[in-house]
Amino acid sequence: MYYDQETQVYLDGAWIKASEAQTGLYSQTLHYGNGVFEGIRAYQTDDGPQIFKAKEHYERFLYSAEVMHIPCPYSVDELIKLSYELLDKNGFEDAYIRPLLYQGEMMTLQPAEKSHLLLCAWEWGKYLGTKEVRLMTSSYQRPNPKSTHIQAKLVGHYTNSIMATTEAKANGYDEALLLDQYGYVAEGPGANFFYEKNGVLYTCPLGNILSGITRQTVFEMAEELEIVILEKHFTPSDVYKADGAFFTGTAAEIAPIKSLDGKEFNKPWKETLGYRLSELYQKLVRAHTTHFFEPAY
Question: What is the pTM of this model?
Fold first, then answer.
């Protein structure tokens, strides 16, 4: 699904075939989850493939590495350049790019002195598909922000998402909605959450969630469309009364939500603010604008 015999990846300074790549069995990332990554999309445009908000993604990538004490000898510009080379070597225009910075051999609970950089890409549709998603409130909570670096995109964090998604699907739902330690809505597995009520969008404030790059793009588009977004704490009961709701994320883009815990929202998706934003988002990511795209190298 992710590669074939001709797929090229970048690993530790060299371009090699994905099928020939090797890694160590004693990596601290493999054993303890101490690694950082990003999910980035490139889109076909009239100017060729363009990587959406590459600068913001790689700035977060380096921030994540720094707070986890993982050395990364690459700059943002170097990583962007390598990402365009990755697309070119694999003939991709629409693609999902995955940078992964993982640790070398280390079995103690201290960061390893050596790290490894992997850049790979594959063609990937919207993560949640195109249908309206049915959510359940998860029994799992998001990690307490005092227990880790919530604003960093860490490999180990995603065990929480795997458990929540698996639970939701086992109960007949499409996806989960996780709460924080106080019972307020936080986010979905790998996606931020918005709901609409009486012409206003609501989303939870930063603190217990990853500050998503697509989330920030929604704020920018909403300002352009004169849509009000309020950041506040709210409960699943507040969401039950919503007119509409959606997830945001690089992999999911803007994903429509049909219901929470079996309670359907008041408006059809195509009559919601989320739908208007999703239509603008698709136009935005396929139109070469220097505000959002980094130029190809």
Answer: 0.95
Domains annotated on the chain, with CATH = 8-122 (3.30.470.10), 133-285 (3.20.10.10)
Tokens, residue 3 = 């590669």
For the chain, what's the residue count?
297
Q: Which two tokens stand for residue 148?
A: 């880790």
Residue with tokens 């990583």: 79
| Cβ atoms 219, 248 nearer than 8 A | no
Q: What is the pLDDT along the chain (297 residues), one digit of tens a residue?
A: 899 999 999 999 999 999 999 999 999 999 999 999 999 999 999 999 999 999 999 999 999 999 999 999 999 999 999 999 999 999 999 999 999 999 999 999 999 999 999 999 999 999 999 899 999 999 999 999 999 999 999 999 999 999 999 999 999 999 999 999 999 999 999 999 999 999 999 999 999 999 999 999 999 999 999 999 999 999 999 999 999 999 999 999 999 999 999 999 999 999 999 999 999 999 999 985 544 544 444
State whether residue 269 is helix, strand or coil.
helix
Identify whether the C-beta of residue 65 lies closer than 8 Å to the C-beta of residue 101: yes
Q: Does residue 214 contact residue 263 with C-beta atoms inside 8 Å? A: no
Q: Which of 53, 55, 89, 153 is catalytic?
A: 153
Burial label, 55 (beta-carbon count in 10 A; 0-12, 13-18, 19+): middle
Q: At what angle do helices 54-67 and 76-90 cross, to 10 degrees?
A: 120
Tell the residue number behind the tokens 């999910």, with chain if given: 39
Tokens of 42: 């490139």
153 catalytic per annotation: yes
